[in-house]
Every structure is written in structure tokens, then in C-alpha cells.
């Protein structure tokens, strides 16, 4: 199979990671989500926890949190948001250079916009479907689950829009926007595979 990178943007609770894993299983490709955070940490020397705390959000990052054993509690050293984003972008590019992969979120569609072998997907689902999924995953009641969804979507939107100068979830930013509730997880993965094949990005 020739090189292919599938990026998956997603609304919170739309099953983005589940679809990515289904694709990874069907195509025998590595999937990078939380794994991407760990890899970025390894490449940069920062702890994985340092990245996880502010994943796909925009705030200041204290080096004291990352190097607690080295810096004192009074340390006032900071790495900028842009600096952390740059580290993550470098990791995404390295992953793409090494071979085919599926990358979830982290502005990966924008980071890899100049390649000729990337298929960019955005997944969405109606709020009731997402509330049900998040409630089952977290044990939250429907009201709390919806509040969490709104909060997560807002954070992802602000993060994406700030670093890409685009509009998160806008159809023109992606090759295809899909309501994953229509075909389900497996059906959505198969639909993406069919799109990739028809577009010539994925060989039959």
C-alpha cells in the first residue's frame, strides 16, 4: 500500500477515536491520539503528563510542572503555547514522513496540508447521540454529559481556530464531513475507506 495519512477531526463524543481504531484495524495502520502526546513528550524531553494536561487547549505552560524534580516551586519559567504547538507539529510531520498512519485531532489536517497523500475527515453526531455515548463512557448524567461536550467542543474550536486561522468543523476545511451516527463506527470506517479508494489515495 502506498503512503496514506488519514486525519480525523471530531466533535467530542462523535466516536472519532473509535472510528480511527476501526480504520487502523482494517488497514493495519498505527493510530495516533494519546499516543501522539506521548511521542511528542519523548521527542521533546518533556513529561507526557505535561502535554496531557493541556491537550488541545490554549493556556500557559509551566516548566515547573514538567520538571518538578529540577526546578523549585518558585520557578517562573514558561514555555509558550506556540512553542508547545510547534513541538507537536514537528512530531506529526515526523510520523507522516515515516509512513502511513491515522492521526486524530491536534490540527493534523492543517499541519499536513501541503502533502499529496492526506485524506482529511471531520466527524460529527447529533447532540443526543453524543450525550448517550459520553454518559455511558463517564457515568455522568445527561445534563452533565452535555455540559462536558459543550466545554470540550469549545476548547477544540478555540485551539484549532487560533493555530490554523481557519474554522473548526467547517466543511471547506476537510475532504469529507460525516455524521458517524448514520452508519455507526464500523460503517463510517468503511465509508472513509471507500472514499480514500475512489479518490486514489488508497490503492485497492
Describe the protein's architecture and organization.
It is a single chain. The protein is an alpha/beta fold and 204 residues long. It has a single domain (5-198), classed as 3-Layer(aba) Sandwich (Rossmann fold), CATH 3.40.50. The protein is 53% helix and 13% strand. It is built from 9 helices and 7 strands; from the N terminus they run βαβααβαβαβαβααβα. The strands form 2 sheets. Strands 2-5-1-6-7 form a 5-stranded parallel beta sheet, with helices on both faces. Helix 2 packs across helix 5 and helix 7 crosses helix 8. It is globular and about 45 Å long. It starts with a strand and ends in a 6-residue tail after the last helix. Residues 60-77 have low confidence and may be disordered.
Summarize the structure.
By secondary structure, the chain is an alpha/beta fold.
Comma- or semicolon-separated keywords:
Rossmann fold; 204 residues; single chain; alpha/beta
The class by helix and strand makeup works out as alpha/beta
**Number of continuous helical runs:** 9
Q: Using DSSP, what is the number of strands?
A: 7
Strand order of the largest sheet: 2-5-1-6-7
Fraction in beta strands = 5-15%
- Summarize model confidence as the mean pLDDT: 84
Query: Sheet bearing the most strands, described?
Result: 5 strands, parallel
| Distance from first to last alpha carbon | 9 Å
Task: Point out poorly predicted stretches.
Answer: 60-77
Radius of gyration: 18 Å
Shape: globular
Helix content: 40-55%
The number of distinct structural domains comes to 1
CATH topology: the name is Rossmann fold
Amino acid at each position: 500500500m502506498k503512503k496514506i495519512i488519514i486525519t480525523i477531526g471530531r466533535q467530542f463524543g462523535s466516536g472519532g477515536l473509535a472510528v480511527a481504531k476501526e480504520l487502523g484495524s482494517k488497514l493495519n495502520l498505527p493510530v495516533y491520539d494519546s499516543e501522539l502526546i506521548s511521542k511528542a513528550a519523548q521527542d521533546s524531553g518533556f513529561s507526557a503528563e505535561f502535554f496531557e494536561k493541556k491537550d488541545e487547549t490554549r493556556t500557559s505552560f509551566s516548566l515547573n510542572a514538567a520538571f518538578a524534580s529540577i526546578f523549585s516551586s518558585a520557578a517562573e519559567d514558561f514555555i509558550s503555547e506556540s512553542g508547545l504547538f510547534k513541538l507537536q507539529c514537528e512530531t506529526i510531520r515526523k510520523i507522516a514522513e515515516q509512513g502511513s498512519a491515522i492521526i486524530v485531532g491536534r490540527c493534523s489536517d492543517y499541519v499536513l496540508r501541503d502533502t499529496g497523500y492526506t485524506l482529511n475527515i471531520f466527524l460529527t453526531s447529533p447532540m443526543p447521540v453524543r450525550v448517550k455515548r459520553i454518559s455511558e463512557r463517564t457515568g455522568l448524567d445527561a445534563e452533565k454529559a452535555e455540559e462536558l461536550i459543550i466545554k470540550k467542543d469549545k476548547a477544540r474550536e478555540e485551539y484549532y481556530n487560533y493555530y490554523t486561522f481557519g474554522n473548526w468543523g467547517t466543511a471547506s476545511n476537510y475532504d469529507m464531513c460525516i455524521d458517524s451516527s448514520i452508519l455507526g463506527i464500523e460503517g463510517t470506517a468503511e465509508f472513509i475507506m471507500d472514499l480514500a479508494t475512489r479518490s486514489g489515495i488508497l490503492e485497492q
